[in-house]
Amino acid sequence: MLPHRVGGGIVKNFLLNKKIFLKKNFNSYESGTPNIESCINLGIIYEYLNFLGFNKIHSSNQKSIFYFKK
């Protein structure tokens, strides 16, 4: 039985002419869920960096680089 939709780790390889090669042993017959947790975490990290201020982060990095180059 072939899956209804492909993706989510069941695709082994594909060609530009839309030929898809599936893995031999895949665990489900549906494409799966995208990595939502990482998207949410990326948004939280961006908000935190905005809270700190990118200029402050940049100047801190520059000070560290200057210190370690001594």
Tags for this model:
elongated, two-stranded antiparallel ribbon, mainly alpha, 70 residues
Question: How would you characterize the overall build of this protein?
Answer:
It is a single chain. Helices cover 47% and strands 10% of the residues. With 70 residues, it is mainly alpha-helical. It has one domain. It has a two-stranded antiparallel sheet with strand order 1-2. Strand 1 (11-14) and strand 2 (20-22) form a beta hairpin.
Strand order of the largest sheet: 1-2
Which H/E pattern describes the elements? Answer: EEHH
Which sheet architecture does the biggest sheet show?
2 strands, antiparallel
Number of helices: 2
Outline the secondary-structure elements.
Blueprint: E1 11-14, E2 20-22, H1 36-52, H2 54-69
Antiparallel strand pairs: 1-2
In short:
This protein is mainly α and 70 residues long. It contains 2 helices and 2 strands. A two-stranded antiparallel sheet has the order 1-2.
